[in-house]
Amino acid sequence: MATIQDVAKAAGVSPMTVSNVINDHPNVRPSTREKVLEAMSRLDYRVNVAARNLRKGRTGVIGLAVPEVDSAYYGRLAATIIAAAERRGLRVSIEQTASRENELDALSLSRNRLYDGLILSAAGMGQADAERLRVEHPVVILGDRIFGGPVDHVAMPNFDASRAATRHLIERGCRRIALLCGAVEEIDTSSLRLAGYRQALADAGLPADPALVRQVDRFGMRDGAEWARVTTADGLDFDGVFCVTDSLAMGVLRGLADTGVRVPGQVKVIGFDNVTESEYLIPSLSTVDPDHEGMAERAVDLLVRRIEGSEPPTRHQDVTGGFSLVVRESTGG
Amino acid sequence: MATIQDVAKAAGVSPMTVSNVINDHPNVRPSTREKVLEAMSRLDYRVNVAARNLRKGRTGVIGLAVPEVDSAYYGRLAATIIAAAERRGLRVSIEQTASRENELDALSLSRNRLYDGLILSAAGMGQADAERLRVEHPVVILGDRIFGGPVDHVAMPNFDASRAATRHLIERGCRRIALLCGAVEEIDTSSLRLAGYRQALADAGLPADPALVRQVDRFGMRDGAEWARVTTADGLDFDGVFCVTDSLAMGVLRGLADTGVRVPGQVKVIGFDNVTESEYLIPSLSTVDPDHEGMAERAVDLLVRRIEGSEPPTRHQDVTGGFSLVVRESTGG
DNA sequence: TTGTAAGCGTTATCAT
DNA sequence: ATGATAACGCTTACAA
To answer: What string of DSSP letters covers B113-133?
Structure first.
């Protein structure tokens, strides 16, 4: 493998001149540049990124740590982050965390010297871990469990969007609306969306029946399906369901079908995320469409600022994304 | 940021001894090790990966290049590869290619000095590009378009599995079976699965009506849905559909529902991939379940052998994965 | 068991 | 406009 030295020798110049050519530095005579480029291609020279990294202290790569890559939601998140990073000439390395421990691990500097910065989508860590985010390298956190931490933060529009989704069900005539969410911690996706749901009920003067709020262990389709089957069998009566993720909603649609409940005739269903599949379900799924692109753009932007040191290290931003409502068949759209 | 030198000074030993401690080398007296470890934690020492890479010529990271991260199929692929790599102490960096050009680009050494090797899931490159795979760093190729190239190759069980899927439809009573696939090139996913489909028809002595084979542009749900709506409206009569991907099949289920065709009553549908969603569709989707785990394991294994140089550079393996059939409601399971 | 010296390939700085 | 020098932080080989 040819090095800069080899190219320099072949072109009859100094290594430094070769470096200047590679990096498009201004002060290189065109004829010299020619010679160097010719030698480079003749020797099939490729820059050694490890050496450059060592010297520069930068890698041009940012890390993205997500709980799982094998899910519609995080797949989409990754795709939008990659696109946003590419626009800034950055590459993205995706890492699967799967647990709070691994999230903390991803944060630890030792694993991250290969990245210039890290976008951490935290699902396992909670508010109590906020101080663990106080690390010396650039970090932007995504998610709904840590607010006001010592890093920049991009959050979903949980409260407002959940309120809008629930309001939509009410406007479509639902009066007994169930909420299907994950385990409600002090602050997390489920608790925030639960709050929005309650607010919408209050706005409309509807009672909030605790029996209609159901927490399941995970956000998977399986959990949604089981809940729907069990709750229908139990005779719990409701005419609308707000599921805090589309995956849950997909499961619910399946579970309701199993028990012969018609959607949207008897029960209306709305989800959250607008994953690709939701448009093609039977019935197609009404849902909240968060501004994924805008949030990804913003997260990368915040990270780049930290990397470039153009942001004072003391102040940190908390950004909440926008959203829109997508009305489809599952709510009678 | 503390370096090995700093730690050495603080512990009153040489840098080499610190290095030995870090790398668990045997000949270090316990008391010395203690001193060093204490100094390391006091100074909050982290190894500089860039420097280590430069010195070792290894990164401990392998690259995975996939056409898109935002799809059920590639999401699952990525997840299984990550798991397989983790078992060998390797980390995975995922890269989105999206086009033949980017696939070739991912191959180019300049981008890959950050990886010890590359697993390339090729969808854009074709057999004509096989020679482009002749690069000097370890590469394993996944996919159905390049066989016998100058690299190790792991392929899906396209022919056999398609034959089995089609045979299953026949056994369930279908006589006019449509095939929905992507653009058929000389060798690719669609052509291989088409061949399996034809073989199954021939096995059963059924005629192969070309009107029943339909190529769509992409493998997306949209394409499947459109095909189903159009073909039903056209009055094309068929009683079974083999879709070469689950995504297509999801679209087909939706399209058939739109036109009032009952599944599996009037038409039976089977897919390929066994994506997570397929179990929860309405009706749930019968499909081919390729041995994703086995194939991922094998791909990582082949790559590791190349990285370690334990394989002669001349011979290359072509591995085909196993599969099983998952029978669900869409074929009357 | 521990230490010394050298070098991995690149680029910033300063000199010419 | 070009080049000499040194340094980024680590580990291999060898010496003590």
So the answer is: TT-SEEEEE-SS--GGGGGGG
Q: Are A151 and A211 in contact (CB under 8 A)?
A: no
Q: Is A332 left (phi over 0), alpha (psi -120 to 50) or beta?
A: left
For residue B173 the two structure tokens come to 């009573």
Strands (E), chain B: 61-66, 91-96, 117-121, 139-142, 152-155, 177-182, 213-216, 240-243, 268-272, 286-290, 318-320, 323-326
Distance (Å) from the alpha carbon of A29 to chain B's nearest alpha carbon: 25
**Distance in Å, residue B305 CA to nucleotide D8 C1':** 32
Question: CA-to-CA distance for A286 and A243, rounded, in angstroms?
Answer: 11
pLDDT in tens, chain B (333 residues): 789 999 999 999 999 999 999 988 888 898 999 989 999 999 988 888 889 888 888 888 899 999 988 888 888 899 999 999 988 888 888 888 888 988 888 887 656 667 889 999 998 898 899 999 988 889 999 998 888 899 999 999 999 999 999 999 999 999 999 999 988 887 888 999 999 999 999 999 999 999 999 999 888 888 999 999 999 988 878 999 999 999 999 999 999 998 999 999 999 999 999 998 899 998 999 999 999 999 999 999 999 999 888 777 778 999 999 999 999 999 998
Which residues in chain A have Cβ-Cβ distances shorter than 8 Å to B277? 72, 221, 250, 277
The CA–C1' separation of B60 and C5, in angstroms, is 27
Radius of gyration of chain A (CA): 25
A254-280, pLDDT tens digit by residue?
999 989 999 999 999 999 999 989 999
Chain C nucleotides reached by a protein CB under 7 Å: 1-5, 7-13
Q: Which residue of B has its CA nearest to A260?
A: B282
Three-class SS state of A216:
strand
Query: Which of A47, A71, A254 lies closest to B75 in CB terms?
Result: A71
Mutation target for A interface from B4, B48, B70, B221: give the one with most A CBs within 10 A: B70
Largest CA distance in chain B: 86
The phi-psi region of residue A121 (left if phi > 0; otherwise alpha if psi is between -120 and 50; otherwise beta) is beta
Closest nucleotide C1' to the C-alpha of A45: C9
What does the alpha-carbon distance between residue A278 and residue A243 come to, in Å, rounded to a whole number? 13
Cβ of A54 within 8 Å of Cβ of B59? The answer is: no
With an 8 Å Cβ cutoff, are A251 and B280 in contact? yes
Q: Is A225 exposed, middle or buried (0-12, 13-18, 19+ CB in 10 A)?
A: buried
DSSP for A39-90, written as a single string: HHHHHT----HHHHHHHHS--SEEEEEES-SSSHHHHHHHHHHHHHHHTTT-
Å from B32 (CA) to D9 (C1')? 22
Give the pTM. 0.84
Contact (CB, 8 A) for A172 and A240: yes
Nucleotide nearest to A15 (CA to C1'): D3
* Nearest nucleotide (CA of B5 to C1'): D9
**Euclidean distance between CA atoms A22 and A16, whole angstroms:** 10
- Tokens 């320099």 belong to which residue? A8
Output DSSP code: residue B329.
Answer: G
